[in-house]
Amino acid sequence: MASSLPISLLLHTLLLFAVPISSYPLGSICKQAKNPNFCYNLLQPHANANLQDLDQFVIDATAASAAKTSSKIQSLLPQTSDPNLKVVYTFCSNYYSAALGALAAAREKLRARAFRDVKSAADTVSGDADACRKAFAMAPSQPIAIAGDNNEFELLSNVFVVVSGKL
Question: Considering the domain boundaries, does residue 29 fall inside one?
């Protein structure tokens, strides 16, 4: 019976290192974000989560933002009479569709623990948000009804890039 004590102690020690029981410091993540305050406010309710759980949360939040904005674009397109603005919304619609596809892929890759692919998806999503914002220049004299939504999406996608880079 005396020999079982060291074996159980060894098993307990191995389990301690195998199970992620501690959270990742948010300050270490958010200092790399474009807007550290936005990042911190987003992640603070999940401060005790491990990196995979944080990334899942950020993917979900980014996807919700993208879906909301994509839906808004679809409702604006038929109402828009300005041809330049219609082009902007059409481009952004395509970027948001691509981003939603990349976010769906990121969910699957995260489950499969293919972290490099998750980071690649994050980069794609961030590029799509940036490309939509750059498309606004095609209608410089028009107010862009999705500008605020796209800004939020850009901030979320940036946090997604940062968190995914830590995996």
Answer: yes
